[in-house]
Specification:
The protein is of the alpha/beta class. It has 10 helices and 15 strands.
Length: 339
């Protein structure tokens, strides 16, 4: 823990650093981080991390400040890193620049990078930690989950009728949800690192798995497309077009699939496969969030929206906490998170 004093005076510059952190990409292997340098009561340097492979927030702020960094206080939303990755340790950059004090919000949960605060203290730099830590952690909620659990945060998305069906008895399923709900799904896709389906869905539905606009064109950053399973896919499958990168993870074990995604720097994954794939992840305890689009239809038969979960009695059921309710015309989007 850092030195303790009345840190209320640190909150205003830290809020400025938090505002900068929010400029970083929400979907990235690395966290969103902001940094401001304050000298003689004025901000002399600003920086934020713009994504994997770019300069860290501290390095950007130091470059912005130039010689004014010497003797300044650095306010950083995440504990400065102490390891060498694509860039050098931020603790070295801060030390070389001659900052006199470092104030950071969230302690780094990444076992590879943490410990920067102690390194700075060992170099006789004054360090304070925990200033607006909760606000900083909220900015990187899912990234923090990913690095601490060594797997992506998993969201299972599906569309269902009022009576829990994802397709009619003849197999038709387009479209259960309305156009507004489908547009929202594309926004959801833009906010994840990967979209995951099984080989069955890839073979039967031949999906594109891209984030598209109202005209059907792929737009903006595209998530990694992931097909889980051992069956071969034809080279003409739409997941192999040039709209986005695609990988096939040849396993039926959800934990193995998530481990490979973690190693690829994926921190958030969206399950869009059929009921079998989602049920497999849920039965393994590897679904963190459920997003269900409920349409005002009743079929009375057809394919269930959720596959077998291995639950034999009510006491074995997984309990979920309501996180959000949104309306899209007569459709309802229900978001639940695991308790």
């Amino acid at each position: 823990m850092g030195a303790r004093q009345d840190t209320a005076a640190f909150e205003q510059p830290m809020r400025a650093a938090l505002d900068l952190a929010r400029r970083g990409p929400a979907v990235d292997p690395n966290p969103r981080v902001g940094c401001v340098l304050v000298r003689d009561g004025a901000i002399v340097g600003r920086g934020w991390h713009a994504g994997s492979g770019t300069p860290h927030a501290e390095v950007m702020a130091l470059a912005d400040a130039g010689e004014n960094a010497r003797g300044a206080t650095a306010y950083v939303t995440l504990e400065p890193c102490s390891h060498t990755g694509r860039t050098g340790p931020c603790v070295d950059a801060l030390t070389t620049a001659g900052v006199s004090r470092v104030v950071f919000a969230q302690a780094d949960p990444n076992p590879v990078a943490r410990g920067g605060g102690d390194v700075l203290r060992s170099r006789d730099i004054e360090v304070y930690d925990g200033v607006l830590a909760d606000e900083a952690a909220a900015i990187n909620e899912l990234w923090t989950f990913g690095v601490t659990h060594e797997r992506p945060w998993v969201t299972w998305k599906f569309a269902t009728t009022l009576d829990g069906r994802s397709a009619a008895a003849d197999g038709t399923s387009q479209w259960i949800s309305n156009s507004d709900s489908r547009a929202d799904v594309h926004e959801l896709r833009r906010r994840v690192g990967a979209i995951v389906v099984g080989t069955g869905t890839a073979l039967v539905d031949d999906p594109q798995l891209t984030a598209r606009d109202a005209q059907g064109a792929a737009t903006g950053r595209q998530p990694l497309r992931v097909v889980v399973g051992e069956r071969e896919l034809p080279p003409t499958a739409r997941v192999f077009d040039d709209s986005a990168e695609t990988v096939q993870v040849r396993t039926h074990d959800p934990a193995v699939a998530l481990k490979e995604l973690h190693q690829r720097g994926i921190r958030t994954a969206l399950l869009e496969g059929g009921p079998t794939l989602g049920a497999a992840f849920a039965a393994a305890g590897l679904v963190d969030e459920v997003v269900a689009y409920v349409a005002p239809l009743m079929l009375g038969g057809g394919r269930s929206a959720v596959g077998l979960l291995g639950v034999e009695t009510l006491t074995d059921a997984t309990r979920w906490k309501l996180h959000d309710v949104s309306r899209f015309g007569d459709d309802i989007r229900l978001t639940y998170r695991r308790k």
